[in-house]
Amino acid sequence: MMNFAFKSLALATLICSHAHATNIKQVYLDDKQNVHVVTSTGKDVRITKTGNRTRTQLSSDGETAAWLVNHTWKTDDQSETGADELVIYRHGKTRSIKCEPFIRDY
User: What pTM was estimated for this model as a whole?
Assistant: First the structure.
């Protein structure tokens, strides 16, 4: 029984330390408006490749990053740019929420 408890504790510690090691330390935009995250281990990972990103934000627990995707609406005589999509990055996966005509804040 003691051996099982020790193995369970060791496994829980390993899982927790791995989850902590992959926390996000920073999220930022590069010169081409692509999103990068920097992990707690210092690894810089580019998440997007197509630009058009703005207003990155990192959650207080360091596990979730979010940003907006810009879109340009054109009419006959003018064009207007604004964000129409919120993207959330967590544990290596992205999910998005589209909202038209635009997103003011999140």
Answer: 0.71
